[in-house]
Design a protein that fits this description.
single chain; 309 residues; alpha/beta; UDP-N-acetylmuramoyl-L-alanine:D-glutamate ligase; 9-stranded mixed sheet; 4-stranded mixed sheet; 13 strands; 24% strand
């Protein structure tokens, strides 16, 4: 079975929920929860939960929280040999305070220090890329890491699938996306990339603009999710295109749904599925995720059996 190396960072979310009306300058009794997060970390957990081999190339710190993140990944079957440990700030943190309605009242983010990860990839990147079969890259970490991983992938003829964040790197280096196998994003991220507002587009309009812009920008293939309106996909190399509707289900929590969609789609592509079939897998995995309270998909080693001919 093909192995995938995920290059990215982990976060921990600390969320506070008041019992009564939130007072921004007073003491608020309530519940505080700590949840492991970060798109790359979530993707690793999604892979492991459906029995797909995956290694996390990341950074963590020698703190109780950092060690807990690594231990959890090890326990569910994620390869952690390529997580480099640092004394502090190896894990990103998001501190969020909700109001009495569950809406965000205030937050503070702490980004992880990825200097050690850049050094580690410089030393071990060739070994990692040569060993794996596929790569998932959180491309907005920094330009040096992105260039190193993409160059090694080209050297060893490995396919790369990207996770985008704030588009800080893609904004400066849109040419990077011409070097990946498939770019998966939501309509807001696609709009930023195309320098357009796409949030009111229907599926037909979205597919038309994705075909036009991805060809213009030389992106080999692209998938854009549109929330309840499903997803559109286009492969400029084969001409494969289409729209995949959402899978109707009971909504519990949407956290992690986009990460699960990316995971399922990428896993389908690494299994040799057509783009249409891979997007269906991503849609089904996202559907399974929003039906549970966790931010990753439920454990199901037989998930891909439903797509076997």
């Amino acid at each position: 079975m093909a192995s995938t190396a995920v290059f990215g960072v982990a976060f921990v979310d600390v969320k506070g929920f008041p019992f009564e009306k939130y007072g921004p300058t007073g003491t608020n009794l309530g519940n505080v929860i700590i949840v492991h997060g970060g798109v790359s970390r979530n993707v690793c957990e999604d892979f492991a939960n459906v029995g797909m081999p995956v290694d996390f190339v990341s950074v963590a710190d020698h703190t109780p929280i950092g060690l807990d993140v690594v231990d959890h990944l090890q326990n569910i079957g994620v390869g952690t040999d390529y997580i480099t440990m640092v004394p502090k700030r190896g894990i990103g943190m998001w501190l969020a305070v909700m109001d009495e309605h569950g809406d965000l009242a205030g937050s503070t983010s702490q980004m992880p220090d990825i200097g050690a990860l850049e050094t580690f990839i410089g030393a071990k990147g060739e070994e990692i890329v040569a060993k794996c079969e596929n790569i998932v890259l959180e491309i907005d970490m920094n330009e040096t890491i992105a260039e190193k991983v993409l160059s090694l992938a080209e050297k060893y003829n490995k396919k790369v699938y990207v996770i985008v964040g704030n588009l800080s790197i893609i904004g400066k280096r849109p040419d990077f996306l011409s070097r990946v196998d498939c770019y998966i994003c939501n309509e807001i991220e696609a709009g930023k990339f195309f320098n357009m507002n796409l949030e009111e587009y229907d599926a037909d309009q979205m597919l038309t603009i994705v075909k036009e812009k991805s060809s213009e920008l030389k992106v080999p293939s692209m998938v854009v999710t549109m929330g309840k309106n499903g997803a559109v996909y286009y492969d400029s190399r084969t001409g494969e295109e289409g729209h995949c509707p959402c899978n109707p289900c009971k909504l519990v929590d949407t956290t992690g749904a986009g990460d699960a969609f990316l995971s399922g789609t990428v896993m389908g592509l690494t299994k040799g599925y057509s783009l249409e079939k891979a997007v269906r897998a991503g849609t089904m995995l996202a559907s399974a995720t929003i039906q549970v309270e966790e931010s990753s998909c439920p454990k199901n080693n037989k998930f891909f059996e439903q797509f076997e001919d």
